[in-house]
């Protein structure tokens, strides 16, 4: 059997070992956090650099694409409007022709 002194010494040794392992875990966690923080800052910085280098090109592309889309929509609207107008005029002439023929009878 273990004496109280031996039990206390074993317990103390286990606590010291647990404390050392805990300290190592904390240090590794701090290192991992520092590494992840540096990686995140690097990604953010690269994003800022990319936007600084390419931002105006992107803005210009968006402006051009937006203008082309608007122009295409406007062209489509006017073409459709013109076709509807022609169809209405044709229908009106057909209706007038039918009315005139019915009067002739």
Instruction: Please give the alpha-carbon distance between the first and last residues.
Output: 132 Å
Hey, roughly how much beta strand do the residues contain?
A: under 5%
Compressed to H and E, one letter per element, the order equals H
Cα-based radius of gyration, to the nearest Å: 41 Å
Instruction: Please estimate the helix content.
Output: over 70%
In terms of per-residue confidence, which ranges show pLDDT below 50 for 5 or more consecutive residues? none
Shape field: rod-shaped
- How many DSSP E strands? 0
- pLDDT averaged over residues: 90
Structural class: mainly alpha
- Biggest sheet descriptor: none
Number of helices: 1
Short description:
With 105 residues, the chain is mostly helical. It has one helix at residues 4-104.
Mind explaining what this structure looks like?
The chain is mainly α and 105 residues long. 96% of the residues lie in helices and 0% in strands. It is built from one helix and no strands. It starts with a helix and ends with a helix. The model has no long low-confidence stretch (mean pLDDT 90).
Properties at a glance:
mainly alpha, 0% strand, single chain, 1 helix, 105 residues
Task: Give a topology summary.
Elements: H1 4-104
């Amino acid at each position: 059997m273990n004496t109280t002194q031996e039990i206390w010494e074993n317990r103390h040794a286990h606590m010291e070992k647990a404390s050392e392992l805990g300290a190592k875990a904390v240090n590794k966690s701090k290192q991992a956090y520092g590494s992840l923080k540096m990686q995140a800052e690097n990604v953010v910085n690269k994003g800022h650099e990319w936007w600084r280098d390419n931002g105006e090109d992107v803005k210009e592309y968006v402006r051009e694409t937006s203008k082309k889309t608007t122009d295409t929509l406007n062209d489509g609207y006017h073409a459709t409007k013109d076709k509807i107008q022609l169809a209405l005029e044709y229908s009106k002439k057909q209706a007038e022709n039918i009315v005139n023929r019915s009067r002739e009878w």
